[in-house]
């Protein structure tokens, strides 16, 4: 029992750290969804998958249903951060970050450590790099 608690805690902490790293990038660039939001998404996704894995002991299809349900829910959450203004759409990167942070949390929960860590670190790196080079077209369109 203690080993199970420690294993769950480690998975949730690593998921939370990946979420914090991605959320830190959002916060540094003053974007939607900061550290707490991304940590909650990562820990939440891990929690749902851990629950699905637990239920799989008596119902093998629960993992598949957990993934399907989670993807629907995370899509809804990601859609909430997308804004359309005229011909410009904002928040796509934040929505993608929500979606991929959830995926990293799911991977870590299933002990697919390499996938979860690689996806999380690559996502943070891509976001830091892309926000370092602002889009001149979008910058010109912004109103004072």
Rg over CA atoms, rounded to whole Å, is: 17 Å
Q: What is the helix tally? A: 6
Please give the order of strands in the largest beta sheet.
1-2
Structural class: mainly alpha
The total of beta strands comes to 2
User: Looking at the structure, what is the overall shape?
Assistant: globular
Portion in strands = under 5%
Which segments are poorly predicted (pLDDT under 50) over 5 or more consecutive residues? none
**Quaternary structure:** single chain
**Average pLDDT number:** 86
Count of domains = 1
The main sheet comes to: 2 strands, antiparallel
Give the termini separation: 59 Å
* Strand and helix order: HHHEEHHH
Helix fraction, binned, reads over 70%
Structure description:
The protein is mainly alpha-helical and 144 residues long. It has one domain. The chain contains 6 helices and 2 strands; from the N terminus they run αααββααα. The protein has helices at 2-28, 35-55, 62-79, 92-109, 113-132, 136-141, and strands at 83-85, 88-90. It has a two-stranded antiparallel ribbon. It is globular. The N and C termini lie far apart (59 Å).
């Amino acid at each position: 029992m203690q080993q199970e608690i420690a294993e769950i805690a480690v998975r949730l902490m690593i998921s939370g750290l990946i979420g914090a790293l991605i959320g830190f990038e959002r916060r540094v660039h003053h974007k939607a969804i900061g550290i707490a939001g991304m940590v909650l998404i990562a820990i939440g996704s891990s929690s749902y998958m851990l629950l699905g894995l637990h239920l799989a002991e008596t119902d093998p299809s629960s993992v598949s249903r957990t993934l399907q349900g989670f993807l629907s829910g995370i899509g809804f959450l990601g859609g909430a951060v997308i804004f359309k203004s005229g011909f410009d759409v904002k928040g796509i990167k934040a929505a993608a970050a929500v979606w991929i942070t959830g995926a990293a949390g799911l991977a870590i929960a299933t002990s697919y450590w390499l996938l979860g860590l690689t996806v999380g670190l690559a996502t943070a790196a891509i976001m830091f790099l892309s926000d370092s080079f602002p889009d001149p077209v979008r910058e010109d369109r912004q109103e004072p």
